[in-house]
Amino acid sequence: MIGMSGLVTVVAFGVFAVVGVLLVIIDVREHRLPNRLVLPLYGVGLAPPLVALFAGESDAAIRALVAAASLFAFYFVLHRAGGGMGAGDVKLAGAIGLFLGFLGWTQALLGAIAGFVLGGLWALALLVTRRAHRGTRIAFGPFMLAGAWAAIAATILGG
């Protein structure tokens, strides 16, 4: 039987999955990640760490917050440096950090790296097939989310 902590985690990650699909669709179509969908992910993503904190597992809560702040800060620097990241990507990075950081440091790092690898491979494929050029805008949110879910899937499959 699943406990309260497990139930909160399953529900939170389920909401993350559903909202993630909506964000992918919107970002591909409109090149934007709406605040009305991204910002509530912070509340949802905080639920498992808070439950863990009240259960005496402060490591998971601290890890989730540090991963969220780290990914947010990294994407913010890229955004300010003119690296093509939009403000929506920055906000989404923090939310993704909450979910992945709750699972572990490895998952947070793997998810972040996987997003860049997947996005880079897609951009390379578009360039090679001449379907894009250096200035072509590519929605990055879908790759961020795919990287996150690759890390989540690796966690589930890894035991």
SSE order and pairing:
Layout: H1 4-30, H2 35-54, H3 58-80, H4 87-103, H5 105-128, H6 141-158
Helix pairs in contact: 1-2, 1-6, 2-3, 2-4, 3-4, 4-5, 4-6, 5-6
What does this entry look like structurally?
It is a single chain. By secondary structure, the chain is mainly α. It has one domain. Helices cover 81% and strands 0% of the residues. The protein has 6 helices and no strands. It has helices spanning 4-30, 35-54, 58-80, 87-103, 105-128, 141-158. It is elongated and about 55 Å long. The two termini are 18 Å apart. 36% of the residues are buried.
Question: What is the averaged pLDDT score?
Answer: 94
Helix and strand sequence: HHHHHH
Distance between the termini: 18 Å
Main sheet attributes: strand count, strand direction, barrel closure: none
Low-confidence region ranges: none
Tell me the strand percentage band: under 5%
Q: What is the β-strand count?
A: 0
For the record, the count of structural domains works out to 1
Instruction: Give helix % range.
Output: over 70%
| Structure classification | mainly alpha
Shape: elongated
What does the radius of gyration come to? 16 Å
Alpha plus pi helix count: 6
